[in-house]
Amino acid sequence: MKRKIITTKDGSTTIHLEDWNEQYHSTHGAIQEAAHVFIQTGLHYLQNTFNPAQIHILEMGFGTGLNAFMTFLESKKHNFTINYTGVEAYPVASAEVSQLNYIQQLKAEHESATYNQMHTCNWEEETLLSENFKLTKRQQFFDQIDDQEKFNLIYFDAFGARVQPELWTVDIFQKMYNALQHKGVLVTYAAKGSVRRAMQEVGFQTERLPGPPGKREMLRATKID
Fold first, then answer.
1. Max CA pair span of the chain
2. Residues 6+ apart with CB under 8 A from 161
3. Burial of 174 by CB count in 10 Å (0-12 exposed, 13-18 middle, 19+ buried)?
4. What residues contact residue 18 under an 8 Å CB cut-off, 6+ apart?
5. Dist. CA 136–CA 95, nearest whole Å
6. Rounded to an integer, what distance in angstroms lies between the CA atom of residue 56 and that of residue 25?
7. Coil vs helix vs strand at 6
8. Cβ neighbours of residue 166 under 8 Å, at least 6 residues apart?
């Protein structure tokens, strides 16, 4: 599949898959999307609402590492203790990672070594990136997830249902529901009715929320059982 680095409207880069006409992040702004959907509506909402002592995050679609890196920066800023698990079936090549400009756009040159370590550390092993941030990368397909009540926050950042509908099904969201602790939260940029209904079918309470730039709505789902 042909791939190329493109610049999104907020100046940050992403990877474009030409055959699918799909991107790893929104063309309206990669960093803006991550900040709105995952950091503000996910991480800060969880912390402000439920105030867990430790935050256990599962990211479905580790990809470029942007969500993980921004979460790491937030952990340093707010002294959050985070155990972060990133799932990715097809890791991004180092040659592509080197062309992404997130360090510069986030003005995080002082943490460039950490961003690089996120991509070079071993898969299937826990890596201590700071005294309060641990990263584990798992090379898996979504249907291989079998965690039980382990996480309190899921970043669901799969490619869109238009190109990979099999990732937005009742079966997949059942796995997400099982992986979350009580009062666990899942956030995603998606807002399709079929996605919301699949979440509700497995027991999630769902909310339609304002979306990031270029998208009217997004979804947040909570496990209340």
1. 45
2. 167, 168, 190, 192, 194, 195
3. middle
4. 1, 2, 3, 4
5. 22
6. 23
7. strand
8. 172
11 closest CA partner among 105, 151, 116, 134 = 105
Residues in the chain: 225
d(CA 169, CA 61): 16
pTM comes to 0.97
Residue span of the structural domain in which 153 resides:
30-94+120-222
Question: Has residue 108 been placed in a domain?
Answer: no
Residue showing tokens 């997830």: 145
- What value, to the nearest 5°, has the Cα angle with vertex 183 and ends 125 and 196? 95
pLDDT by residue, tens only, the chain of 225 residues: 899 999 999 999 999 999 999 999 999 999 999 999 999 999 999 999 999 999 999 999 999 999 999 999 999 999 999 999 999 999 999 999 999 999 999 999 999 999 999 999 999 999 999 999 999 999 999 999 999 999 999 999 999 999 999 999 999 999 999 999 999 999 999 999 999 999 999 999 999 999 999 999 999 999 998
Q: Is 132 exposed, middle or buried (0-12, 13-18, 19+ CB in 10 A)?
A: middle
Domain with residue 194: its CATH number is 3.40.50.150
The residue type of 129 is L
* Residue 150 phi, psi (nearest 5): -100, -30
Whether residue 109 is contained in a domain is answered as no
